[in-house]
Amino acid sequence: MEKIPYKIYLEENEIPRQWYNVRADMKNKPAPLLNPATLQPMTASELENVFCKELVKQELDDTTAYFDIPDEIYDFYKMYRPAPLVRAYFLEKALGTPAKIYYKFEGNNTSGSHKLNSAIAQAYYAKAQGLKGVTTETGAGQWGTALSMACSFFGLDCKVFMVKCSYEQKPFRREVMRTYGASVTPSPSTETNVGRQILQEFPDTNGSLGCAISEAVEKAVSSEGYRYVLGSVLSQVVLHQSIIGLETKKALDKYNVKADIIIGCAGGGSNLGGLIAPFMGEKLRGEADYRIIAVEPASCPSLTRGKFAYDFCDTGKVCPLAKMYTLGSGFMPSANHAGGLRYHGMSSVLSQLYDDGLMEAVSVEQTEVFDAAQKFARIEGILPAPESSHAICAAVKEALKCKESGEEKTIVFGLTGTGYFDMYAYQKFNDGIMSDYIPTDDELKASLDKLPKV
Amino acid sequence: MEKIPYKIYLEENEIPRQWYNVRADMKNKPAPLLNPATLQPMTASELENVFCKELVKQELDDTTAYFDIPDEIYDFYKMYRPAPLVRAYFLEKALGTPAKIYYKFEGNNTSGSHKLNSAIAQAYYAKAQGLKGVTTETGAGQWGTALSMACSFFGLDCKVFMVKCSYEQKPFRREVMRTYGASVTPSPSTETNVGRQILQEFPDTNGSLGCAISEAVEKAVSSEGYRYVLGSVLSQVVLHQSIIGLETKKALDKYNVKADIIIGCAGGGSNLGGLIAPFMGEKLRGEADYRIIAVEPASCPSLTRGKFAYDFCDTGKVCPLAKMYTLGSGFMPSANHAGGLRYHGMSSVLSQLYDDGLMEAVSVEQTEVFDAAQKFARIEGILPAPESSHAICAAVKEALKCKESGEEKTIVFGLTGTGYFDMYAYQKFNDGIMSDYIPTDDELKASLDKLPKV
Predict the structure, then answer these.
(1) What radius of gyration do chain A's Cα atoms show?
(2) Of A52, A106, A219, B97, which cross-links A135 as Cys (Cβ 3.0–4.6 Å)?
(3) In chain B, where are the structural domains located?
């Protein structure tokens, strides 16, 4: 058999021409977004006050299986895609496992993560609609960076509300966004009503993703020619991110490799939803079976300890309600360093698939994640983002199970990004002063008791 | 004709199996290193006190054209190579030039630059010799990071002396090295005699590359089982870095593209020497002609304003003397943000080629470099290192000349790395408070007057 190279690169003309919409193959469709005032399903025209038209269409369409990727987006993809599927030969050897480990590496672009895949799509549709600009929030900073790059490419204004603790801990992330011409405001800010309210109530708050979302939405709907864009959770994002899974599958098919286990970290679900899309499609259509594992931080365990219920997507409760696995929109995750995974809810698509028993979920603790990250960096030569390292941690555990059982399983995981802007967290780990935090049952109960009655 | 893709990736089995030693084709060989005490050419056994045996062999060999790349190094190369040769379609369009622009991108690895190509080679030979560890210095931090990764891979101890101002301005670079298990000491330090002397004389000094080299060399020769390694200037480094040029040439040949102009930034010469090696080889053998342009910072202009003479490689004068274009080992470059280019001298190989009229040199100022860097980031989607941006700046100028003349020249430049750890410098640029500095003739004269009499 042909030896599989360290990195499988597709040819440029093998980059998928269409995104795949996994909802089309789901028997139980994700529940619709609800209007927070009426508790009725959001209509297209209601959503269009907040989101770009074409994106609303994508958001509401749960039957069309494939969407063409417009040429302008496709050309941009060519700048940094195809992303390599890496065979982790060195990691396999270091673990002494018979398992074959692959990872799809999405970090080889300046945004440092997979977020660019959806950012460029959303910026394109905003531009096509003739908008002046977009607003958004960012936690770890990956989404904000990606959106800044995308907006700069299309000449759109970009206003980013950055969770205050990230804004302060990650000044260099902020500078990357500024280099791409974005304006970056620490959240909560005095620029919005909701920000001012939160500051009045909690003057010392470090901010949260839910609060930054509220501010960005308010800013968009109150500014002429602006719309709000979001880097995760929404079904349109899972659609755009399907390019990760489609490329992964094509690369595996090229070498006749069949995955057994597919693993991804899960915050709002953008990476996991995209990575698993075509595999889940086969599973839904009964064409193949895979074990699919979502990995979340033990400090913010929406799938493993949350409830499947309608909830607000933001703290300010200005956004539509989504049916999802949630810890409650008032849940304040501890200061875990994987900022991209500190969200109280989970994509409706993934939530439904999980509830239907089509995927598993596990949670891992922060220090074991950084331990896996450091080992991975030394063995495979890539310093991973804390978020991605959740998937590494779980993949290593599965590979070690194979070592015990002697099974030669094929494990594929998503390496969503690099940790070059997360060295503050690595420093804590290197200094041996990183800690773990797992919310108590009482804490979770207190937050879940406040779920809206729908 | 087949459309050239945005990124030309060689296949894994097309990674060159040998390094090319351009000295073999030089009629005028680079002058030998001299013993600072005797002013006689350094013998192999003298050099072996400081450097690894096999590397000394490579350093002294100016006749063997090709060196086999050992399997262990080749396997490591497969983790992050081949590096893409990118066709800058978007940049060409933005400039409106008929020129065809290509860049060899060496930044897609965690060290963030081409430095890893030589680091892994040097670490391998140190391991093969049975050493415990190596010492080195780092300015901008790219070489130190690369060496940390390489040492971690082979289980070698790695002691890095980091120029003090970088150590303070770039705490996150330091953390990357620590994550790879290296120990990092700000230089000048109290760990060495030369460091203590310098601190006594200049208690407030921010350090310099020349001083950090002296400390690293002293540490190596005074520690059992250690040798010193260097990321630039030396001929062995130019040899290892030839992989950049060899891949570039192979990728161009694949599409029958003939380069007209080849451009690289030049500090000590590691990138430029590697990029141009096979092209210069053709030129030396009379098989083809190319314009080859070295780009240096106006604040540290060794080729454009220095002297071709024997000089010390370090401030402490513990290293051998090299014949090179130099500003004098006592020259203190202004606080330019391209730390990797702030070196008083230049590779003996490149110095000889330049003196023989086989290549050109230009200097560019800091603010125009960052202006080019920012534009490039926005247009081509890669946020470049300040060092690499010198080459971008010069390439853009050449492309604009083509626009004026209507010539469809093919320009190839080296994009040596990413600027993710240089956001402090970008911040200054974004805030509009970056300045330029060009040394006066008197300043240069004062330094050049102190060149050793050889």
Answers:
(1) 20
(2) A219
(3) 7-14+70-112+235-448
* pLDDT tens track for B257-310: 999 999 999 999 999 999 999 999 999 999 999 999 999 999 999 999 999 999
Which one is the CATH code of B7-14+70-112+235-448: 3.40.50.1100, 3.90.550.10, 3.40.50.300, 3.40.30.10?
A: 3.40.50.1100
Cβ of A420 within 8 Å of Cβ of B176? The answer is yes
Query: Which residues of chain B have a CB within 8 Å of the CB of A374?
Result: 179
Nearest CA in chain B to A372: B179
Q: Which chain A residues contact residue B427 at CB under 8 A?
A: 171-172, 175, 178
Length of chain B: 454
Nearest CA to B295 out of B217, B226, B409, B387 is that of: B387
Q: Which two tokens stand for residue A134?
A: 């977009």
Of A86, A31, A117, residue with least CA distance to A326:
A31
- Cβ-Cβ contacts under 8 Å, B378 against chain A: 149, 152-153, 180-181
**DSSP for residue B110:** T
Confidence of residue A1 (pLDDT cuts 50, 70, 90): low
3-state percent helix, strand, coil for chain A, nearest multiple of 5: 45, 15, 40
What angle separates helix B142-154 from helix B116-128, to the nearest 10 degrees? 40
Geometric angle at alpha carbon A438, from A432 and A440, rounded to 5°: 145
CB atoms within 10 A of CB B335: 14
Choose among A108, A171, A430: nearest Cβ to B108: A108
CB B390 within 8 A of CB B297: yes
CA A174 to chain centre: 19
- Measured CA to CA, the distance from residue A343 to residue A325 in angstroms comes to 11
Question: What is the crossing angle of helices A366-380 and B142-154, to 10°?
Answer: 90
Pair A446, B195: CB distance under 8 Å: no
Question: A114 exposed, middle or buried (CB, 10 Å; 0-12, 13-18, 19+)?
Answer: buried
Q: Look up the ipTM and state it.
A: 0.96
pLDDT band (50, 70, 90) for residue B38 = very high
Question: Look-up: residue for tokens 């030839």?
Answer: B242
Residue pair B204/B168 in contact by the 8 Å Cβ criterion: no
Q: Token pair of B162, please? A: 């980091």
Structure tokens at A380: 């495979």
DSSP letter string over B420-441?
A: TT-HHHHHHHHTT--------H
- Give chain B positions within 8 Å (CB) of A426: 175-176, 178-179
Query: Rounded to whole angstroms, how far apart are CA atoms A194 and A197?
Result: 5
Task: Kindly state the average pLDDT of the residues B65-89.
Answer: 97
CA of B37, closest CA in chain A: separation in Å?
41
DSSP string, B271-325: HHHHHHHHHHHHHHTTS---EEEEEEETTS-HHHHSEEEEEESSSSS-SPEEEEE
